[in-house]
Protein 1
Amino acid sequence: MSSTCRLRVNGDELALAVPEHWTLLEALRYAAGLTGTKQGCDKGDCGACTVLVDGQPVLSCLTLAHDVRGEVTTIEGLATPEGPDPVQRAFDVSGALQCGFCQPGMILSARALLSRQPNPSGAEIREALSGNLCRCTGYTKIFEAVRLAANTSRQVPVRYGQPAQGFNVIGARGRKADAIKKATGEAIYADDIALPRMLHGKILRSPHAHARILRVDTAAALAMPGVHAVITGVDLPTPYCIIPWTPDETALAVGKVRYVGEGVAAVAAVDEDTANRAIAAIRVDYEPLPRVLDPRAAAEPGAPLVHDTDWKGRPRADNICKEVDLAFGDVEGELSRAAATVDAEFFYEGSTHAPIEPHCAVATWNADGALTVWSSTQVSHYLHRELAKVIGVHTEQVRVIQPVLGGAFGGKSEPFDLEFCVAALSRKAGRPVKILYTREEVFYAHRGRHPMHMHMRMGADASGKLTAVDNDVLIDGGAYHSFGLVTTYYAGQLLTGPVDFGTYHFRSRRVYTNKPCCGPKRGHGSVQPRFAFEIALDEIAAKLGLDPIEIRRRNAMVSGQRTVNGQLVPSTGLHACLDAVETASGWRQRHGKLGRGRGLGVATSMYISGTAYPIYPNEMPQSGVILRADRSGKITVFCGANDIGQGSDGMLAYIVAEETGVPPDAITVVSGDTELTPVDLGSYSSRVTFMCGIAAQEAGRAMAGKMRAAVATAWSVPVDEVRVGYGSLFHGERSMPAREALVLAEAALGTPLSTAGGYRTRKIGGDYRGGTIGASPAYSTTAHACEVAVDDETGIVRVEKVWAAHDCGRALNPQLVEGQIEGSVYMGYAEAIMEAHTFDERGLHSGPNLLDYRIPTSKECPDFFAQVVETIDPGGPYGAKEAGEGPLHPVIPAIANAIYDAVGVRLRRIPFTPDRVLQAIRGGVPC
Amino acid sequence: MNDFAYARARTWDEALSLYEPGAVYVAGGTDLLPNVKHRLVKPARVVAIGGIPGGIDLATELVIGATTPLQQVADSPVVRALVPPLAQAAQLVAGPQIRAMGTLGGNVLLDTRCLYYNQTEGWRTALGYCLKAEGTWCHVVGGPKTCVAAQSSDTVPVLLALGARLRLLGPSGRRELPIRDLYRFNGMDHLAIEKGELLTEIVVPRPPVAFRGSYQKLRTRDSIDFPQLGLAIAAELHGDTIGALEMVVGAANPQPKPVRGLEALVGQPLSPASIEAIADLVYKQTRPQGSVHGSEAWRRQMARVMARRGLEALGR
């Protein structure tokens, strides 16, 4: 029942026609158009929808609109004509905003705190923000921002730090390109898009883990008033997969369902309530089939088959979706000769990305039959290709736009059912259609961390030199292939540095099970074996009486070395990283000496900066950048890269600023739009800074060339004597603002100024089948030390501090690099201590919501100390390498190793829940 | 949420008059609305009582209006001085926003919770439903008879330990009920109140001068989470001697669990031996069920540890 709802919002008296069962969140977003208030879970578990009522933070998703009795302040109402609120500006300049999706709520909670307590303690800040979950930052820079806002007067100045020696911009600490828009609620995310006549779509999902679909009856749904289109699997039968060799998935289930939560049918209706009623009216007859949930059972002969045939229609004999077996040297011989060996089983539990923004897509078709899809994707280009294929139109009829993205971490790096469904429903209905996943659906979409069973054997000689590693991995893939081929290789291929070893064998098998499909979560495929490896290495050190840092030094790879599996590592800073965490943690004085219940642990890792080969073979550049300069003195950067909150737009602006002298704030980045921007393959495998960076560098240099030539002509000096500096071009004592140089160049050339750059793949990788998978043009290196307190009586592990030293090559913007390190460490910490994406014997998720699937709050999150180590890489842009995934890996084994230091038990299974830890302490078998 | 009608009450009497079968009351909404979104509750009418003034009043007894927000209880100088464990428990409920919205009355009347119940309709369909909602089987105990969804309030164990009383207003008039008599061992129907009956005030007797007490909460995260186990202690200590002792375990069962046999310890000194004996009593009587997160065996062991630590802290 709708009635007039009178709300006082941001100083306005609103009279809105709002149904009486609507929440304040719905009224604000849908009726008042105030989309700065975000929907993250819609159940009061995440805090993204926080608004102030009479200055008090409340959850708008749990407040009935008609029941609001006070003055509402949303993020849009915080700024004044004088400018943003100091809290908003502090979040902007501190790098506290990555994806920005949780931040309107977070900023309002911070505002409320500072209004009642202008100078809060650290504990008060943690407490006040503890109802607002952030998935990007590890809260570190958020705390800094609140302290900054607390300690400054009305306005926090925008400023950039000092650039590195010899650079104009590179190396300067600075804000993210889009941060202030995110801080003020101006940024438009996919769910903020509302088109005229737009319908709302919903997907009906399977209640069975494995069942044959006998009949789908949509008649009743279609007959309902307000329902405009209904589709089922047969409407979109073309199989697809992010890996073009293994298309085993359809947009909606065809023939059978393979996990609880798989899409079966979809509807588009005038509003969400009608769409929900419509999917409830669809009748599906299922014939339940035997399900297989444990990967060990799934790998057995005779197990129920998740897929009866492969994608070519050939009958399948088993559930093994990919197997890799590679050997480098005589592992067994070395193990038999080793002075110390470890032989142990490990289990790495699955976890999921849980971005605070649920996936969302909007589609519309124009009168000429062209499709536009806005989607929260991190791979617009692949989505473009797959949409054309599945929808059955040519790629020239499809445009994919990535709006501002609210967190991804790998969870939005392939096509999802909603993107195909909005396109198909929109075509059928002749109207735009939006689908926003519920929080539950985000868990079913998943593509998160694969559970892995690992059998690790390791041997070393008496000096601690590692001689052999054998790594046998069984990977629980879930129902579909996803990036499975890559995962299966990565589980072995990425283990071979920065700690070097003499011989190596790995066997890696990924099996299908009747669960949501796993995929690439930050540190794709390699976080799990790294966990086993770094614990085993610690055990070897203990057996040989070596210090855990020392054994890593003795086996440290050096720059320019090849790994045992034949990958060239142009640069590695392991020694520097180890030195940094050794000093910062007080390791020498404290390791092994903190008394029972307190311990220090260390671990290391290496990660790729992009992969040498694109997902589909082609000779075109992996990344392209086009620059367009304008007479106003601004440059627009066009690049297909997907800024997923990590700050790639800012990175592009920095590089173009560096090359052209135009200040970063005068550079606009247009990214992730397949119609406007040259192709970049997307944000995955930590490729963006390296590859888009090189493309931007090339385009920027070309632009600078035109500017310098014009200046040289004007001043009658040799062009190679004209230098680009910050904001200006120089010759000796003379200078010209960059903006004037652009005008001069345009006049001289007689055409608008435009340049292009690309990243072209070099041929690299080991000379064997699969040797190119895991081959990267550059590798980052990380070392972590952490300090834990273990309660002997409860088993509760408190991770108090993590010192994370990460070699990212040249840090282009150290503030953003630190943010990536802190966010990575946070995510690894969470996997180690609390997260578990698990299923019961029915294949039912153990709690697909943010209350049962716990992600850390600001209160228990450890203190993170990020240290940037710069080992300049010969191939990277200005020597830069990746920073977004590598720093996740070591924290999990470092915590395990610290627990060993604290209480003398080895934990070989995550998460380290108190009951498991207590059982291990009491001598039980760690479960 | 289903399409319901909204009505706002300004007084308790008006709230009662707006009640009709199929209606529910809402104060803070933090417990009710997720359940409505999960389609566990499908009200035809929602009667909002959050606008009825609450408040904290100390006369001969401490009287707290049911609509008083939890954060106000936690911050109240009167509550903090007189009954610190109540302030402590209120401060440990969920996160800041939920404490600002949720009320003490709502926390007392909190619906029982279970991993098989507090889920979406789609999830529960896949489960085949449960005894508490639309089904015939309890998945926790594996049987068709008893629902063991847990009473998961943080303030309730404290209010029980303090001997609080509830003032109720219902179709058959006003009455007062000791909070101890409110809860039944039945997760489906755990509140001994009539349909339409309203909780208007919570009355906490003035504790004695020698009062000591605490509330401890077991949870994974330091915010947001419901308790995996709660333990309230209310004692009188005369020097080292136990003058009185009440302990109540929460979040283990549909009913908060007052520990029995503690009177035997009255008159004894609070010593390592007596603490161990009490902790043993608590352990033996605590039988957590798998309706909430965390293994039952571990949560049970934690009851002993929490009891020991809580008692040790009393002496300090």
Protein 2
Amino acid sequence: MKVELTVNGKEITADVEDRMLLVHFLRDVADLTATNIGCETTSCGACTVLLDGESVKSCTMLAAQADGQSVTTLEGLAADGHMHAVQEAFHQEHGLQCGFCTPGMVMAIVSLLKENPSPTEAEVRTGLEGNICRCTGYHNIVRAALAAAEAGK
Amino acid sequence: MSILGTRVIRTEDPRLLTAGGVYVDDLREPELAGAVRATFVRATVAHALITGIDKSEALAQPGVVAVLTAADMTDLPASEPPGGEVPGPDEPPAEGPVPLGGKWAEPLLAVDRVRFVGEPVAIVLTDSTYQGEDAAELVSVDYDVLPAVTTIDGALTGDSLLFPDTGTNVCVKGGRDISDDSVFDGCDVVVEGDIVNQRVACLPMEGRATAAAFKDGKLTVWASTQNAQLARLIFTAIGLPPDAIRVVAPDVGGGFGAKIGVDREQIVVAWAAKHTGRPVRWVETRNENLMAMTQGRAQLHHIKIGGDRDGKIKAYRLDVIQDAGAFPRMSGFLPMLTNLMAPGVYDIPAVQADYKVVVTNTAPIAAYRGAGRPEAAATIERAVDWFAAAAGLDPAEVRKVNFIKPDQFPFVTKAGAPYDTGEYEAALEKVLGAADYASLRADQQRRREAGETKQLGLGLASYVEITAADGGAGETAKVEVHDDGTATLYTGSSAHGQGHHTAFAMILQSETGIPMDKIEVIHGDTDLVPDGVGTYASRSLQLGGSAVHKAAIEVKEEAARNAAALFEAAEADVVLDADTGTWHIAGDPDKSLTWAQVAEHADGGLIVANVRFTADRPTFPFGTHLSVVEVDTETGKVTLLRHITADDAGPVLNPVLMEGQRHGGIAQGAAQALCEEVLYDADGNPLTSTLADYAAITAAELPSFELLTSETPTPVNPLGVKGIGEAGTIGSTPAVHNAVIDAVSHLGVRHIDMPMTPERVWTAISEAQKASAK
Amino acid sequence: MIPPAFTYVRATSVDEALGLAAEHGEDAKYLAGGHSLLPLMKLRFAAPGVLIDLGRIPELAYVRDAGTYVAVGALTRHHDVAHASLLASDVPLLAHTAEAVGDPQIRHRGTIGGSVAHGDAASDLPAALLALDASFVIRGQDGTRTVPAAEFFRGIFETALEPGDLLTEIQVPKPARPAAWGFQKFTKRAIDWAIVGVAVQGQAVALVNMGSTPLRATAVENALASGASIADAAALAAEGTSAGSDINASKAYREHLARVLVKRALEEAAARS
């Protein structure tokens, strides 16, 4: 079927299998490979992107379901050569190691801070319950989220 | 002033944060254009004879290029058994550690028998991923099902044998005689018991992945691996010499030991590329990852500990049984390390340790963060708490009484480990002070007296571990200084999240003054770094970093000769200002040469040093963790409130990176204590083969960690450093374990096996209460 | 993991959805947020031939004051249920329960109707709606009917929905004392499904994951009605339940948890009101 998406501000139209998952549309059709597949059971959050500004897990969604909507991936966050506040905070706070969960973590936190601009540490931790990281022990990811919130004030 | 020891944020990050890493699935190399997708058909039963494989329905599916089984692998060289002596039916099991071949060999694809659910039986090549999953479902494999061996006890009975030709399920035995019970004579307090170190998943967020292209007699393989050079040796199994193979490790999404080398599926992918002439890419699903990637731990310990009423431990015995899973990979080596580290940080006059390894119809066991040492630490630290409880002493006091003292180093333990340096009591005191241990104990006492629902528990673990155990293999580094003043640094270490590019550039800058932003670091490509060992066993900074240090010194020596010629001065009079990266004549700071000028004068405009650093012995990082937990005694639920650590791995090169390693390690160790476990049913079916079922720990279960600094250098390498990659995991598991049991010990609970799920904790409390009511 | 092939069709109105369902028959399934169905399809536990996407039926996403009850459109996402001010004031139990579902990403996609129609005894929302005496409006091929929650959940993943039926609205009576609610969800990890959960509104008590459907803890309710203390009533929480054993918990432990959590939820409700 024909699917038309706005991905990082750019319109992409493609004829895809009805069953194509959004994450495969982003990776294989739009050729945006930052978004990773980590579990396929809606458990790990590595595939998190923004759909019309809200975090969703792109492996648990058909591309067809997103037809006509706007998707933002990690590649679309930086503007004018400047990292988004959440990206910058991850850099400053050492919020990433191997980098595989990072795109999903960053997008989840962008969405979280949009809904709750001044979260407590506990709110950040609960808000990341659906994102698994195996490297950082979450310590610096949580710090990065709080630092980005602080920077956004 | 040297950059070493300062907080430098990572140079790796901007790319990972804006474009994402380039993992195997992200590669868009021209050689992989038109690559077919590999999907494995995997065993659906744990133990069976294969009686037939029907590919016809799958082959008729759209997009199917090939369906290949072991029977198609006729173009492989006859393989020599990789192991040494192979025990026959009447011979005793091998004295480990040896990678076992022969009768214990692990085929690339199952031949006539499958030994665990998830074992690869066939490979399906299709134009797309979607077609691959559809077609793989249609490959029909007929099985004659055999009784599955799913537990250590089941393996020991020998009723069902995985390798019938061997006559046994015990594949390795080792260690020392533990039968002499007289070492416990005269002990006032003796405690004995079983401790389970359960099987856990390594769970790198990127699973296993490989892409391969074969062209003009040369195989190029991109593999998610911790060591491209070792992987290259393994890929020779498909019948190519090493120089016809290039292995590239692109970005690797975590390894944790499970990506040391490459697995059989990855060899099959490389073979399929050569066999079909088509580039092939394979990226496993999480379901496959949780069924068939090697897993960790899986040891059963029986211990005995004895000593005096005043807390002095006089004897310790550790009997280890390692579950190897279906194939004996590193499983002879892991329990040997557990034996070696058995007595931990304590000066125990009599130590006995032995091990045996059994095969079961489960996923193979190999290295997982710590690999043999966490098991030792977990058990001695539980044993010391048992002993303290039996002697009626505070666990902190018992540890102090028994620590190896600073003036005893170097110290060879009764298990044979040559500890280099240690300040064990200082680390403990630091943690006790920062935590305000006395106040915490007072709060605990108050809650106990008030009979509150939520009880407080304090758990200590003072650990020592062995890092870079294979220091003799060393690590390579090559430094090139170019005539534009930039440098290229090639390392045989292979980062997959650790931040080597930042750390190694810091070492080079510190020695040469060439600024980090002019240093390019290259790793994980056998064409560019043909000789290297890789990243595992917490070896990279001490071996790879020391190699960089050594190369930097050699480059400086070469540069000094060139600078002397340019200055028309004696070489001895030429000095480097490492702060500015400029060369001078001693006493004449006004005249200077840049690195670019010095390199320009060298042969070919290039100064090169190519070195290998080896260490003549391992290092032994140590520390103390204190975990503070709250246990809901009505439900058994545990909340980790605080985790305070002093981890000492020598001088800290970059606190940012060191803290990151500790954070990750603490979380993984706490996860083993609290929630993670790989489970099988009685027929060997995996019960935790998705992340909906395998309880990987998340941010919501953890607090922020409190890290204290402790820096005791080692004389083993010029940087004075030890490994920090695994220490967090090793310390945190027993600390959390002890804390939970401490929280409910006043209710009569003596032990709870890991993972301490709410039900296990509640059951322990209920049973203790029932027992005390009698 | 990839779902098996199917044909995707999209409905833009309830009538169109019903028409598509009639056209494709039993091989078709409705797709709301997809967070129950798509994971099952990816594991190849479900393989419908046709998916009828309801995601573009704006008329089914709302939270509306209907006087004595609050009407919630079946396609209202968990996130919107959790943040509806009308629910926060008039049915806080429902808003709170919606916030306990899954994680933020799941709440951005998953819908209340999808959760109810899936009929999973381990889901949080069905139990809360049972405690709230909600009713479900169902459009079938032969018209509209309203089924009370007590009659809706029939067995393991089995509800009053017949093939082709579409759940359109959830009607939640406004409790006399909205603040008298309690909710307890017991999990190993925050992200997990409830091992056991309890929803309390006034003296109505419903249990998550204590049988093949969400259940009312009738013995507890009867005891409370006859004046028993919270502690005495909660001790009856496992009566009439049929909890299972799995890798997360044994039946005996679930029964124990039910007693503890019912007590806590009742105390929570009492403390609030």
